[in-house]
Design a protein that fits this description.
By secondary structure, the protein is of the alpha/beta class. Among the domains are: 46-283, SGNH hydrolase (Rossmann fold); 364-442, Immunoglobulin-like (Sandwich); 522-670, no CATH class. Helices cover 21% and strands 23% of the residues. The strands form 12 sheets. Strands 5-4-6-3-7-8-9 form a 7-stranded mixed beta sheet, with helices on both faces. A 5-stranded mixed beta sheet has the order 33-34-35-36-37, with no helix packed on it. A 4-stranded mixed beta sheet has the order 18-25-24-21, with no helix packed on it. The longest helix has 19 residues, at 187-205. The radius of gyration is 37 Å and the shape is globular. The chain starts with a helix and ends with a strand. 32% of the residues are buried.
Length: 711
């Protein structure tokens, strides 16, 4: 019904507007969502100054659409039908290279760019926005073989746009891909791509002088370190020499979305848009930007600073007799933040603030917390409130009594560096009022898991996570694995007294003990075996003796038939003083959990022992690989075949619930790997490091991480 009413409203409204020759419908918004953009059918599009906006997700935009409320009159957007229409605020919605809906829904720098260029020139502006989130620069060049075809698809839209006007500039924001790890690209290679991209676009529009403006990556957020390095090595003054008519905009002070710490928020996108606009207004339209300094009764001690800002630079410091300089502000009432850095093409008025100015004086300051208990490695921000709240000068200075224990930044963020106590003090610039907070830094919470012979591996063979430092409440404890045993829970007490622990809360610390019930091996015990390995050894010895006596021995491919073939009439055999019938021997525990299908492992063990005794091994009709034979062969076995997929383990009777946990129990156990020189000579089973590689030692035999036997 809602859509029906909206449709009737739109039709009626359009009918009314049709009688007004000057009117056109620009936007309809429902619940904050832009649902239609159109121009009147007979509206004439003026000759446009066209701008192409390309690159990655920040060029596509991730700023809030609902914040974009400016009048877009005089700005036009190339739509999906390659026609210019009166522009909506959401300019990225018609990109034909978008990677997902995120690339088309939000606000990017092109929004504020178009507004500023139109306001400064009065020219009708045509925008072609065609960015793709996550795209590498190699997909944006004419020689690209990428399946996304960013270059060729963009050219198709650009050529259609040229019917409406002239391309005046190219805005480029890309580089995140080229700043990361193995994708990291040196300046020389990046500039070669830039040269190919720009010259290709210029050739397509038949204008070798079109301006190309690139943008620095944001230097805050989760990837700040990599972005800073990219800006310092690639996106700097040197890019101007990559091609002629090339410049760049800086990213200083640009804000990002805290919930999405790689993308600009609305304010950040608009700030970048303004900087792009200033570059274009300077290079294309010849506009000059200057700073104005309102000295508020002060004076320059020497030559006045240059009012045209060419490079990022600290603000200059004036003088005033009998007063201290307290900084530059964009607001005459000093209500905003102090401006300490000026960026290229800055064009604002800065007001000097002095200590002798009439003001509302500070009478007190208070830190919101008296004491904070924390642990090494944590960060947190202290808050301080000034009295009165409308005091003129609100500057604060933060200090620590012991930086080695707790350091503090001038924004109030402290870092707990080592165990101990430190006092954080805040001091007001006006009046030197102080207050403090005691930071008590303790040992970092740590959970130690005593597995009692188990391993951190799931029934599917995946290594499970056993968190050591608990960062949140209600952390669910994982279930470890132990062959032949049932897990009965985690306990704080080594004797398993008390109640089992199922969840942990933030800051929990101590040792948890795994409790097991390992009574599931009665088949071993009834024949005098204490471990399943004892059983393997005796059964293998029995088969070897049978082979030497002339018996034939094979397993059928399906164990359920329990087929065992022997070539002599009698099947009686004596093993360790126990007489039993080999053919009818009760091996049912191999067909039941937790030992189902382990006859495949036993067969591998038999092969090894047979070989060591100089007899031919049983025929492996099932085709099972040697798997874990190396760990049941006293040094006479074979290695795991982990390089070859073991997809046939289920086909031939070895279930994944058996195969993978044993594999994981070796590779994922909690024993720390020691340097080889620290390994005890009598250690029968552990992991160690040699030449930066992990090895496993079992019963005097060394295997690499793939289980390959090492000499």
């Amino acid at each position: 019904m809602r859509h029906f009413i909206l449709t009737l409203f739109c039709l009626c409204t359009l009918g009314l507007l049709a009688s007004q020759s000057e009117a056109h419908l620009q936007r309809i918004v429902v619940d904050g969502l832009e649902v239609i953009v159109a121009g009147s059918a007979d509206e004439a599009i003026p000759e446009l100054d066209i701008y192409l906006c390309i690159g990655q997700s920040n060029m596509a935009g991730r700023g809030s659409f609902t914040d974009a409320t400016a009048d877009m009159t005089g700005i036009y957007l190339l739509n999906g039908a390659n026609q210019f229409i009166p522009s909506p605020a959401r300019m990225s919605q018609y990109s034909n290279v978008a990677s997902d809906s995120n690339d088309q829904y939000w606000i990017g720098p092109h929004y504020q760019f178009a507004l500023d260029v139109h306001a400064a020139t009065g020219r009708p502006i045509g925008m072609v926005v065609n960015a793709r989130g996550g795209s590498g620069i190699e997909s944006w060049v004419p020689s690209s073989t990428s399946t996304t075809q960013c270059y060729s698809k963009t050219i198709a839209r650009l050529k259609a746009a040229l019917a409406y006007g002239k391309l005046k500039g190219i805005l480029w924001h890309q580089g995140c891909n080229q700043a990361y790890g193995s994708y990291c690209m040196d300046a020389k290679t990046y500039y070669a791509y830039i040269n190919e991209l720009v010259n290709g676009l210029r050739k397509e529009v038949d204008d070798k002088d079109v301006w190309f403006i690139a943008g620095q990556l944001a230097e805050i957020g989760k990837d700040a370190e990599m972005h800073i390095k990219f800006n310092q090595t690639v996106m700097n003054d040197n890019i101007k020499s990559a091609v002629h008519n090339c410049d760049y905009v800086v990213s200083g002070d640009v804000t990002i979305n805290p919930a999405d710490p790689i993308h600009w928020d609305y304010a950040g996108a608009c700030l970048m848009g303004r900087r792009y606009a200033k570059k274009i207004l300077s290079h294309v339209y010849g506009k000059e930007f200057k700073m104005a300094y309102d000295l508020q009764g002060g004076y320059w001690s020497g030559q006045a600073p240059d009012s045209i800002i060419r490079h990022t630079t600290p603000t200059p410091t004036p003088m005033k007799d009998g007063a201290d300089f307290w900084g530059w502000f964009l607001e005459k009432d000093f209500s905003g933040k102090e401006v300490k850095i000026l960026y290229p093409d800055a064009s604002d008025t800065l007001y000097a603030r002095w200590s002798d100015m009439e003001r509302i004086k500070v009478t007190n300051v208070a830190v919101t917390q008296d004491t904070i208990s924390t642990y090494v490695g944590t960060e947190s921000t202290l808050q301080a409130s000034i009295t009165p709240a409308d005091a003129t000068v609100k500057d604060l200075t933060w200090t620590s009594s012991n930086e080695t224990i707790a350091s503090i930044s001038q924004t109030g963020m402290f870092t707990a560096n080592s165990i101990g106590r430190a006092t954080i003090t805040v001091t007001t610039l006006d009046g030197n009022f102080t207050d403090s907070c005691i930071i008590i830094v303790g040992e970092q919470p740590r959970i130690i898991y005593e597995l009692n012979g188990g391993a951190r591996v799931s029934s599917t063979g995946k290594c499970i996570t056993l968190a050591e430092v608990i960062e949140s409440n209600n952390y669910s404890l994982a279930t470890p694995f132990k062959m032949g045993c049932t897990f009965h829970g985690w306990f704080w007490e080594e004797d398993f007294s008390g109640q089992p622990v199922k969840t942990l809360n933030k800051g929990a610390s101590g040792t948890l003990y795994a409790m097991w019930d390992c009574t599931e091996e009665p088949e071993c015990n009834q024949y005098g075996w204490t471990t399943s390995e004892d059983m393997y050894q005796d059964l293998a010895a029995d088969v070897i003796a049978a082979k030497k006596a002339g018996f034939a021995f094979t397993f059928a491919s399906t164990f359920g038939t329990r087929t065992k073939k022997f070539g002599k009439a009698t099947n009686e055999h004596d093993v360790s003083g126990i007489s039993y019938d080999i053919q009818t021997f009760d091996m049912t525990f191999f067909t039941q959990a937790p030992y189902k299908a382990k006859w495949g492992w036993l067969l591998s063990y038999m092969k090894a022992r047979c070989k060591s005794e100089g007899v031919s091994a049983p025929t492996d009709n099932a085709g099972i690989r040697y798997n874990l034979a190396a760990f049941f062969s006293d040094g006479k076995g074979y290695s795991w075949d982990l390089k070859t997929p073991t997809a046939d383990y289920t086909t031939y009777g070895v279930s994944s619930t058996d195969y993978y946990p044993m594999l994981g129990a070796i590779l994922c156990d909690e024993t720390s790997a020691l340097p080889e020189e620290q390994m005890p000579s009598n250690h029968v089973g552990t992991k160690y490091i040699r030449d930066d590689q992990l090895f496993i030692r079992h019963k005097g035999i060394t295997y690499n991480i793939l289980g390959i036997k090492c000499q």
